[in-house]
Thioesterase (Flavobacterium pokkalii), 145 residues
Amino acid sequence: MTSFSKHLTFRWADLDPNFHVRHSVYYDCAAQHRMEILDSLGLNLKVFQKMHFGPVLFREECVFRKEITQGNSVYIHTTVAKMRTDASRWSIAHEFRTEDNLLCATLTVDGAWMDTKLRKLIDPVPEIAVNALLSIPKSEDFIES
């Protein structure tokens, strides 16, 4: 699988009363991974503040397939699943997989770039953001829109 990947560890506080990873932890891990990826591609908080723009999400959905418990060795794999040619709108997919590549969950976000001063979608998308999204591997079922 070609993607940005990261090994995850879970804390006792990440578990629910059934002793598996709480649903909201998946969302937190995915958000953290997206921001780490953007940061590694030159889009960090300082750049967002200086250029007055940042990512905004319209939809966030997780489909759970197999429970994850504290002792599981799990990796998050992140790809771009859908993107407009100008990178103004995009979907990013996060797959949570075991060491044996068993799919545990898929979390998908749909988003765009927002002008943080005007509080509306930015047009045109800054080149640094376009280049960052183009640098993230595409999913096997990538859709260009």
Q: What stands out?
A: The CA atoms of residues 52 and 117 lie 6 Å apart. The chain has a mean pLDDT of 95. The longest strand covers residues 103-115. Helices lie at 23-40, 45-51, 127-135.
